[in-house]
Amino acid sequence: MQSYVISLGGSLIAPDKLDSAFLAKFRALILKHAKNNRFIIICGGGKIARRYQEAAKDIVKPSNEDLDWLGIHATRLNAHLVRTVLKPIAFTRILKNPTERVELKRGQNVIVAAGWKPGFSTDYGAVMFARTFHIETVINLTDIDYVYTKDPKKFDDAKPLKQINWRVYREMVGNKWDPGANVPFDPVASKEAQKDGITVHMINGRNLANLEKLIEGKGFIGTTIADRR
Q: Is 23 helix (H, G, I), strand (E, B) or coil?
């Protein structure tokens, strides 16, 4: 039985409003593959988080910690929705602390997780859950097909990267995490993933058939960040 941490981006759960059609298809895929695989699904906040943060900024000058907490609670609300639709096979509560290890009952092959505390991204949470549960693979579901050498929206000569090692990737993104930074995978999480020898697959979460290929060990579209063993 294979185990995966899936980082489910908030842009997929709530790109503008809650996308129940996407969640229904995602649910069907997880139900199908949870028979032979275990999943930890950590949820992002998406536009729900940003709208709460923007509302606070319209009224007061919130601290970065307050803004972080608004984002964290948005991830938890999204996670409760995901756990609700996966309830028959999901662990009984949302996990928030990625260092907490729980035992799954028979028939429960899914854990749904959310943001932890200020200063830590859901990418970091995904890597920490992988560490805690001794999982070697993180699947990061985003809204892009590949990691590129440059921002493809700004540079015509940006090239997609299908395979990259952690050293090269970390040289691209630096070492500091900034909640507002536009990087494919959090630099601090990347450092920890490299330390643990974790493989991260970056794929477009809108293409669930592609996600299924990855889970089934078939060729898929996306970027793999890993060091050779």
A: helix
Nearest Cα to 138, choosing from 177, 91, 196, 81? 196
| Residue written as token pair 């899914």 | 110
Lowest mean pLDDT segment, chosen from 67-76, 111-120, 170-179 = 170-179
**Structure tokens, 149:** 């050498």
State the DSSP code for 95: B
Per residue in 76-105, pLDDT (tens digit) is: 999 999 999 999 899 999 999 999 999 988
pTM over cut 0.85: yes
Is pLDDT above 80 for 107? Answer: yes
From CA 67, how far away is CA 130, in angstroms rounded? Answer: 26
Residue 27 has pLDDT above 70, yes or no: yes
Tokens 């996407």 sit on residue? 22
Q: What are phi and psi of 46, to 5 degrees?
A: 65, -155
| 8 A C-beta contact, residue 162 and residue 223 | yes
Which pLDDT belongs to residue 181?
60
Contacts of 95 (CB under 8 A, 6+ apart): 40, 102, 111, 112, 113, 114, 129
- Strand order of the sheet with strand 137-142? 110-113, 37-43, 2-8, 137-142, 199-204, 223-225, 163-164
CB atoms < 10 A from the CB of 103, how many? Answer: 6
* Domains located in the chain, CATH noted: 2-225 (3.40.1160.10)
At 65, which helix (H) or strand (E)? helix 64-85
pLDDT above 70 coverage of the chain, percent: 97
